[in-house]
């Protein structure tokens, strides 16, 4: 009798699991369909992207990639180079500057520590628009408009404060005994930072690097404001250029370059997905 | 001996050396500019001639003299009002389904998270614009499946903002990941205790899961509200840089950008920036005040 009931509940459980999986797969397909559509459309001739609804292109129009890559006013290679240079420097800046500052907040004792820490936390919540315009005036005064400095230099000054917070939390989890042992061996704070904290901080540094790269690579507003000549444009600006200069048959190249611009993000996603998801789950970073 | 003494002593010199990047950055790129934009908001300034003091006239114009500004407020509040609940609704719903101990959790979580990672990019906004255009794939589908001749979503003022809300909803992955982490924190004993007391799954959901998840719901809500007020790229790309059609997607940030960097009304744009900061602060403050009534913190009984 009891086995019968168990069997029935087992069966209905299995069925409900199946329904749930069915729903999730269906939902996942809907979620991913726009990206599939983008990939497929980027391989269709421009004049039939909207009339030919087939999911598999009749023939592969690689021409779209070629024409997009050659570009309107500058080749896309230039935009990719610019984007990679800027995003890589942003990574270096954030990793170095934020880890310095986080080390001080997590391990050193200094005057006004509490108020400074509170101010640092407040800057995380502050909208960028609060400082956008005077920053522009300042960088314009320095003659830095149309260079990468206004985009990259702030990262070396630890302006992305949530990474400081992330690292402070991480350093607090590193046993203090390690510092003290090194101190007994005669190491000062600077050596402790380089020989103990920095190596153990690697997981948080990787999270910082990955998010810094993605956000800088995707950022549109800052380059839009500061990079004014086409040869300095980043990838998002290059896409915008294609969008703005479109003719009847430039859909194909525009979609092709859009997809290509997402490739670095796909690669990062596949390599670091655990890191990304843990980073969001533990700190609530925006995605 | 001297080393142990150092342990209890302040290490100001070396500490401020480590802090120096942030202190310089804070003074030069945050505090200075904030005070600067406060000053500029009381002036007319076009970047080429010296700022001219105009008192409260910029703020007066914001309060009534500028129809496009009021339109941008309307659009932005509409966007926040619809996109935040949509995003959080999807996020919570899928997190709850995924938390039921299914196989393949990691796979589903990654798939649902991917759009969040890509969503802020220009490429995705371009894609979205094509999908919702008159002959885009949404309309192809509506036509071939139901023979509905749907309008062009992007160029119709009644629907354009809706496409932006949907784009935000598509990116529910990041808050979903946070919800999932929160759900995992709820101890199994709570459910065991509830089921000993005779609580059925539905009751467990309303009396255990939701109350214990309210701090996470609150956190996600505040972060999404703050973020949504600052959305820029999707509105810029989907409206082709104009905030159109008929200013129906003119986000606050887009109008601010236009005033500051296309028309060089730096003073007026600074006033707009200050009002945006005030709006976001007020929204955050209201959220925190309301939290007392619905957010359950485990340490207060």
Protein model, in words:
With 287 residues, chain A is mainly α. Chain A folds into two domains: 2-64, no CATH class; 74-283, MetI-like (MetI-like fold, Orthogonal Bundle), CATH 1.10.3720. Helices cover 74% and strands 0% of the residues of chain A. Chain A has 13 helices and no strands. Chain A has helices spanning 2-41, 63-70, 76-107, 113-125, 129-141, 149-156, 161-172, 176-184, 189-200, 202-218, 221-226, 235-244, 251-283. The longest helix of chain A is centred in the N-terminal third of the chain and has 40 residues, at 2-41. The mean pLDDT of chain A is 90. Chain B contains 14 helices and two strands; from the N terminus they run H-H-E-E-H-H-H-H-H-H-H-H-H-H-H-H. Residues 1-7 of chain B have low confidence and may be disordered.
Low-confidence stretches of chain B: 1-7
What is the number of helical segments of chain B per DSSP (H or I, 4+ residues)? 14
Q: Give the CATH topology of the largest domain in chain A.
A: MetI-like fold
> How many structural domains are formed by the residues of chain B?
1
Largest sheet of chain B: 2 strands, antiparallel
- Rounded Rg of chain A: 25 Å
Q: Approximately how much beta-strand content do the residues of chain A carry? A: under 5%
Biggest β-sheet of chain A, characterized?
A: none
- CA(first)-CA(last) distance of chain B: 48 Å
- What's the arrangement of strands in the largest beta sheet of chain B? 1-2
Mean pLDDT across residues of chain B:
91
Q: What percentage of residues of chain B falls in helices of 4 or more residues? A: over 70%
Q: Return the CATH architecture of the largest domain in chain A.
A: Orthogonal Bundle
């Amino acid at each position: 009798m009891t086995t019968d009931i168990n069997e029935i509940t087992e069966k209905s459980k299995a069925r409900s699991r199946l329904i749930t999986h069915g729903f999730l797969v269906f939902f996942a397909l809907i979620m991913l369909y726009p990206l599939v559509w983008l990939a497929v459309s980027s391989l269709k001739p421009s004049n039939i992207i909207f009339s030919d609804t087939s999911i598999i292109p009749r023939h592969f129009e690689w021409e779209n990639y070629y024409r997009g890559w050659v570009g309107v006013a500058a080749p896309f290679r230039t935009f990719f180079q610019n984007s990679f240079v800027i995003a890589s420097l942003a990574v270096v800046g954030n990793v170095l500057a934020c880890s310095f500052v986080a080390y001080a907040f997590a391990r050193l004792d200094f005057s006004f520590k509490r108020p400074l820490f509170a101010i640092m936390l407040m800057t995380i919540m502050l909208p960028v628009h609060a400082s956008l315009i005077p920053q522009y005036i300042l960088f314009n005064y320095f003659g830095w408009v149309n260079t990468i400095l206004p985009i990259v230099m702030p990262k070396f000054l630890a302006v992305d404060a949530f990474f400081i917070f992330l690292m402070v939390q991480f350093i607090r989890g590193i046993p203090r005994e390690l510092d003290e042992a090194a101190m007994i061996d005669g190491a000062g704070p600077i050596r402790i930072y380089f020989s103990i904290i920095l190596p153990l901080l690697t997981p948080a540094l990787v999270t910082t690097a990955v998010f810094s790269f993605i956000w800088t690579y995707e950022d549109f507003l800052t380059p839009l404001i500061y990079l004014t000549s086409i040869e300095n444009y980043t990838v998002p600006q290059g896409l915008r250029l294609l969008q703005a200069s479109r003719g009847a048959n430039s859909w194909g190249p525009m979609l092709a370059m859009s997809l290509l611009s997402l490739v670095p993000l796909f690669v990062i996603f596949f390599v670091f997905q655990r890191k990304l998801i843990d980073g969001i789950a533990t700190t609530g970073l925006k995605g | 001996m001297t080393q142990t003494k150092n342990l209890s002593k302040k290490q100001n010199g070396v500490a401020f050396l480590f802090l120096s990047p942030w202190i310089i950055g804070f003074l030069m790129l945050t505090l200075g500019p904030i005070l600067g934009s406060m000053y500029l908001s009381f002036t007319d300034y076009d970047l080429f001639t010296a700022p001219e003091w105009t008192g409260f006239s910029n703020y007066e114009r914001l309060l009534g003299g500028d129809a496009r500004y009021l339109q941008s407020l309307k659009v932005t509040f509409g966007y926040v009002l619809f996109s935040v609940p949509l995003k959080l609704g999807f996020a919570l719903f899928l997190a709850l389904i995924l938390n039921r101990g299914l196989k393949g959790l990691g796979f589903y979580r990654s798939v649902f998270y991917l759009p969040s990672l890509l969503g802020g990019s220009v490429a995705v906004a371009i894609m979205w614009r094509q999908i919702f255009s008159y002959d885009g794939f949404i309309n192809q589908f509506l036509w071939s499946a139901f023979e509905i001749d749907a309008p062009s979503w992007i160029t119709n003022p009644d629907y354009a903002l809706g496409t932006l809300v949907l784009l935000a909803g598509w990116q529910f992955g990041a808050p979903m990941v946070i919800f999932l982490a929160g759900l995992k924190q709820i101890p199994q004993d709570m459910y065991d205790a509830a089921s000993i007391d005779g609580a059925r799954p539905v009751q467990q959901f309303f009396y255990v899961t939701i109350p214990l998840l309210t701090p996470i719901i609150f956190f996600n809500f505040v972060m999404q509200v703050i973020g949504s007020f600052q959305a820029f790229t999707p509105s810029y790309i989907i409206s082709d840089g104009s905030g159109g059609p008929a200013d129906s997607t003119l986000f606050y940030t887009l109008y601010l950008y236009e005033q500051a960097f296309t028309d060089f009304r730096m003073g007026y744009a600074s006033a707009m920036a200050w009002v945006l900061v005030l709006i976001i602060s007020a929204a955050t403050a209201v959220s925190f005040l309301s939290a007392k009534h619905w957010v359950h913190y485990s340490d207060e009984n």
